[in-house]
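Can you give me the bound-state structure? Components:
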Amino acid sequence: MRKVWVIARKEWAEVFKNRFVLFTVVFMPLMMTALPLVILYTMGTTEEMAGFSTADMPASFADLCEGMSGETCGQYFIVSQFMLLFMLLPLAIPATFASYSIVGEKTTRTLEPVLATPVTTFELLAGKAVAAALPAIGATWLSFSIFSLGVAILTEGPGLLRQVTGPLWLFAIVVVGPLLAVASVSIAIMVSSRANDPRVAEQISMLVILPLLGLFFAQISGLIFINETMILWMAIGVTVLDVGLLAFATQLFQREAILTRWK
Amino acid sequence: MIVAKGLTKRFGDVLAVDDLDLDVKSGEIFGFLGPNGAGKTTTIRMLSALISPTSGQAKVAGYEVGRDDNEIRRIAGILTESPGLYDRLSAERNLSFFAELHDVEDVAGQVERYLRLLGLWDRRGDVAATFSKGMRQKLAIARAMLHEPTVLFLDEPTAGLDPEMARLVREFIGELKDEGRTIFLSTHNLDEADRLCDRIAVVNTGLLALDTPEALRAKLYDRVVVVHLSAASPAYEKVVSEQPFVRSVELKDNKLVVGLDDPEKNNPELIRALVDAGADIQFVGELRRSLEEIYLRLVK
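Here's the bound-state model for the whole set.
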């Protein structure tokens, strides 16, 4: 495990000097945190929310508002539209990071000297995966914590905060988030093994966010509302996907293939 | 130190290395010559446990390629064809990363030692992207040495360097040999190979020749002496051609170019015959075939 950490530290020292990666890791979480808070603040200062009732909500969403006042339910309805964005972070950040980290090594031909050291393929792959996934998970958790703090400050009473930090979203952020990060890293490794330009690799890897964006738009348009069952199924699905993707990515990440076929 | 038997590597239909037999002795500088695409880099990659052979066997310091790969990576250092440095990291950080991967105990001490040895200590904090080609190559050599390897694979160590930097690198390679390390040197610089290497292998997918530079010369060419005369005459050519030990003779300007079986034994008789015939001899020297001539003859 020591070498995994050695590799991860090197990755951070190098990739964080890339302004584009730094921008992605810092700016995206800032935006995803600020957006719902600004909307929440704006809503709190309008008169219209005071007269809101759960009857104004779509029926399938009203079930999630049990025990809430109409105003809190209205706020939760609006805020919950953006909660999925916190799950976008562990998908998008590793895709950017891993693309620059792996394709960068290909273009500068730095992998061969690394492979000539007594580091195992697992340690190398794990080091790169950890380096890409940890900042994403950290940024997601930090953003979500700041968001929760903002909710506590901007809203009266514990109703909305209890919903936002309830089991549904805590499980989504704390458990499903890292699972999504693993999927994103695996896909970025696969794409990077074929791409020669970090930007191309990043753009292709970014397609990984499409299913989640689909959920986001389905929820905004009222087709679905994210609930516990959905998140649980998502966790199971992503876990199965991770196992398959990791196995495939590890197959691609073979020493000989890297040296002779990664062109 | 390095033994290969029937070492073969195929990439699909392409035969990169064919049935290669090598025996590199401990503490020698072993030159590995061949045209582009001859399989030199592939051979180095196999011997340094980076890729596995399709067939055949190889051992490095007693460790078998394909079975003891991690052990080989511990005792071998490699200078790859391209320096492969992390451009955004400082020279010091580039080296400390590799020292940690090699489980070097005193990382900072060893990094300082090689940065100083190769004259890069004053630039230790500068990112590698700001380094000249020569400095990059020196940093890559330092990287290959951090774990004090007993076997060193150098792939074109002086390629693209200016003469002064190339000489510094050659001197450093000489010092490494003096420390008792075995050096496997792939190069296109034949003069460098001639000066540095104890033995040379010429390959073109398979092995064409393997011996000391002198032995290769003797195998491929007659030994030739050049007799410089104050005045040339066809009569002297005739006198020389009549000597039984002479294999060939040619008059060029004021010089007689004479092929002999054994110059150490035949030269006195040859000179005596010429002096008896009235020739004024200015000096006599042996015509030394360059390694380039030997190489070109072998690969064509």
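A couple of observations. Chain B touches chain A at residues 11, 45, 48-52, 70, 73-74, 76, 78, 80, 82, 84-89, 93, 97-98, 100-103, 140, 143-144 (CB under 8 Å). Chain B has eleven helices and 14 strands.
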